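Per reviewer request, we include the raw input and output of the structure prediction for the construct analysed in the revised manuscript.
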Amino acid sequence: MAEDSNLSVLSFLESHILPLVPSLAESLKKGIRTLDMGCGRGLVMLRLAELYPKSRFVGMDLSEEAIEFARGEATRRGLSNIEFVVRDASDFDKTAQPESFDFITTFDEIHDQAKPLNVLRGIHRALKPDGVYLMQDINGTSHLHKDIEHPGRHIAANRPDVTKTTVNNLLSNINSFGAN
């Protein structure tokens, strides 16, 4: 599913996804640190690294096979502004370096996590105070015919900016329901 999602995201990346957040493309042009959690084979990060050579990109995934593919692609493409790491996100709340990323993405990833709240807490910790978190996830229903629509249609953003404040609000809402 992750690779299907990456292909869907790629088809909308420049035309629909990046424009969701005002000034994001401009920030990427100037140079920021970006993390994609659950990057799979790294297709989204590889494309961004090609488009924005002044930015630094990190792709993280649990699959060693996927990360090996991504590393090979980065080498083949001659990209020096990207790295890929194998790791489990379930303890990201404890291991994330504080305020280390300007932009964090999760594409079709949070619903797969054993401990999604830990992942979101880690994202909150890793974001710089004015950092941006962009999440796309499944819009599941009990109607299969609705669930097979193109995932790119369900990408949403809290306009005008998706910032650390938005992640604070998301965590607050999750905590209010007693989730962990």
